[in-house]
Design the sequence.
């Protein structure tokens, strides 16, 4: 796990009736909120949430972390 990944604890999640997906990680809550505003213009029917989800080193050993 790189130091760069540790710096982005805010996770934006998109939920539609069909699926739920993590869209990206951001360094600050404000960056995540601004990204959601842009996404809401493109896909207004989806629900977006911001979650504080810091990456733990153990969780990223064998898989690619978003």
Sequence:
């Amino acid at each position: 796990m790189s130091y760069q990944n540790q710096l982005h604890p805010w996770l934006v999640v998109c939920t539609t009736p069909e699926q739920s997906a993590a869209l990206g990680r951001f360094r600050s809550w404000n960056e995540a909120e601004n990204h959601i505003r842009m996404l809401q213009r493109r896909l207004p029917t989806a629900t977006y949430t911001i979650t504080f989800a810091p990456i733990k080193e153990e969780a990223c050993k064998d898989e690619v972390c978003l």
Residues 29-42 form the longest helix (14 residues).
